[in-house]
Design goal:
Chain A: Keywords: Membrane, Transmembrane, Transmembrane helix. The complex is a heterodimer of chains A (about 110) and B (about 450). Chain A is mostly helical. Chain A contains five helices and no strands. With about 450 residues, chain B is of the alpha+beta class. Chain B has two domains: about 130 residues, no CATH class; about 290 residues, Immunoglobulin-like, CATH 2.60.40.3880. Chain B is elongated, with a radius of gyration of 33 Å. Classes of the chains: A mainly alpha (about 110), B alpha+beta (about 450). The interface between A and B is medium-sized, with 32 and 34 residues.
Chain lengths: ~110, ~450
């Protein structure tokens, strides 16, 4: 049975943050594979996605360091958490514009 | 540049491993910076030299593999040295009898004042008749006031037989109180009364020579202050005597001759001929002491040394002296301070006390705490009085972090794991990029038109 007390202990929290960090690295690697194989506006879209994943990686790295109490959680870190979402929105706007162009929408 | 990147990776990794094996604390920030620098340098060189020199590929590949292998080796060594530090969990205990107040294991003790015909408080169950008062050994109790520069102002000494000859006026707001009881391990209950202000109480145990020393953690306010030191026997069962000192901080504020006269049980102090000085009775004498608090650090080593990031276990004992037997809510505050007075922790909680409550409190320190001496203050507040106790400890050694299962490990293992993960990711990315570049014109770069042609987009 799942023991929530164990999961929320300091050590377990750190391990979960590390697992998330590895997963984000896998996201970066997979998006890089695509970036190197596409061009034009598709390339731009995936580059934006990769940038967003990279920002997520930095944020997750900070979370790991905060969980290990090496650095303090601060307002600057909270504000930085907004950055990947801005890039995600930019990427989706780019793809939306591309689809509308290919569909010859006015 | 490539050689520099190589050098950084190899030298740092080897230095790191050497420091680990020697049990020294390497600067993790520096390590992280240089490791990141070397890897980023290698990445940059990989892109820059990719089309020029084939042997550069092998060099970068070798660097990445070396960092990864050394990181794995470092983690293996650290895991072999995983230490439990002082993190052994202790059971939560309530009403554990302490040496200061054996209320549960021995007959209730009475707090009496020499000269008084009645005890001022009982340490035991309500309405229990105290045993015959223990014989109080004779002792000369001394107390003195020492300024920060080490000098003793005129009138800054007193004993329980000879009162101070003058009330000193001092500008120093952090004087040190010290004294001797002549008996080792007696309990000194110190009351610092400010005229019309807050009273701070604290209990101190004398050392093997029967001496004690106390300095308030905050500045004294302007005005007249009275320090009462009531000395108990080591088991807290009887009072050996009381000694007091008065002093003025800031401008002298001697009271007028018309102020309250002395009562038969009060002690008097004559500073000038025909000048009567009112000495406020101690809280113990007035039966206004509601609580006493004691904080004792519990750990595997008796020198009270912990690692940065380790847990601190403190046994807090609260004594309801004023109204034993009645359940009273008290607010207990905890502060963690370094030698310079910087605050690292400040929290409060409410604790109900009937006669005596003893509980184990766990405080988590941070891995970034600098080495040095620290003090944990425990304060219980009630009415206009604060009862204060503190315990000293040292933070030393390598920083540790908590791992699952309650295990503590060297904090640099985290840096090793991050470095290894990052190095492996960069290595995989490099291989992937290399594959794409080698294929060159053989692979078709997909564009949005291709998606349309293949029917993915209408």
């Amino acid at each position: 049975m799942l023991n929530l007390t164990t999961l929320t202990s300091e050590g377990s929290l750190l391990v979960m943050h590390l697992i998330a960090l590895v997963m984000i690295l896998m996201l970066i690697l997979m998006s890089l594979r695509i970036v190197w194989r596409v061009e034009k506006q598709l390339d731009t879209f995936f580059k934006l996605l990769t940038l967003a994943f990279f920002l997520l990686f930095i944020i997750q790295l900070m979370r790991v360091l905060v969980a290990a109490e090496i650095i303090e959680d601060s307002l600057a870190i909270d504000l930085f958490r907004l950055a990947p979402f801005i890039v995600f929105i930019s990427a989706l706007l780019k793809m939306n514009a591309l689809i509308r162009k290919l569909d010859k929408e006015k | 540049m490539l050689v520099l990147a190589f050098g950084c990776s190899i030298v740092i990794s080897i230095a790191r491993l050497t420091a680990q094996q020697n049990g020294k604390n390497a600067d993790t920030t520096t390590f992280l910076f240089y490791a990141a620098f070397s890897i980023l340098m290698a990445m940059g060189l990989s892109i820059h030299h990719y089309h020029r020199q084939r042997h550069v590929h092998h060099a970068i590949l070798g660097t990445m593999l070396l960092v990864a292998v050394l990181s794995i080796f470092g983690i293996f060594i650290i895991l072999m040295q995983v230490k439990g530090a002082s993190s052994t969990l202790f059971s939560f205990t309530i009403n554990d009898p302490s040496t200061a107040s054996p209320v549960t294991s021995e007959p209730p003790a009475a707090i009496t004042i020499p000269g008084a015909s009645y005890p001022v408080a009982y340490l035991g169950e309500e309405n229990t008749t105290p045993e015959t008062a223990p014989e109080v050994p004779s002792a000369t109790l001394r107390m003195k006031l020492t300024l920060t520069d080490g000098s003793i102002p005129e009138g800054g000494t007193a004993t329980n037989a000879i009162f101070q000859n003058k009330i000193p006026a001092i500008a120093d707001r952090r004087p040190v109180f010290s004294g001797t009881t002549g008996i080792p391990h007696t309990l000194v209950f110190l009351e610092l009364q400010r005229e019309n202000g807050l009273t701070i109480t604290s209990s101190i145990e004398t050392d093997d020579a029967g001496e004690w020393r106390y300095m308030l953690a905050e500045d004294f306010a302007d005005g007249l202050h009275t320090a009462h030191a009531t000395v108990f026997t080591p088991d807290g069962g009887a009072i050996l005597g009381t000694v007091f000192l008065q002093f003025t901080v800031g401008k002298p504020a001697l009271p007028s001759a018309d102020e309250a006269p002395l009562t038969p049980t009060e002690s008097s102090l004559t500073a000038e001929p025909r000048t009567t000085v009112y000495v406020p009775r101690s809280l113990l004498e007035q039966r206004q002491v509601l609580f006493d608090i004691r904080a004792e650090i519990i750990g595997e080593n008796k020198s009270n040394e912990i690692h940065p990031g380790d847990e601190l276990f403190v046994q807090i004992t609260l004594l309801n002296i004023g109204s034993p037997g009645y359940l009273v809510d008290s607010t207990v505050g905890y502060r963690l301070l370094d030698a310079a007075g910087n605050e690292y922790l400040n929290e409060k909680e409410t604790v109900s006390v009937s006669t005596q409550t003893s509980y184990l409190k766990r405080f988590k320190t941070k891995p970034t705490m600098p080495e040095g001496r620290y003090r944990l203050e425990a304060v219980v507040e009630y009415a206009d009085t604060e009862a204060l106790s503190y315990a000293n400890f040292s933070v030393t050694g390598v920083p540790v972090i908590a791992l699952p299962g309650g295990v503590k490990a060297d904090a640099t293992i985290l840096i090793q794991i991050l470095t290894m993960t990052f190095a492996i990711a960069v290595f995989i990315a490099y291989l992937e990029h290399r594959e794409v570049e080698l294929l060159g014109k053989m692979i078709h770069q997909v564009s949005e038109e291709d998606l349309q042609k293949s029917g993915l987009i209408s």
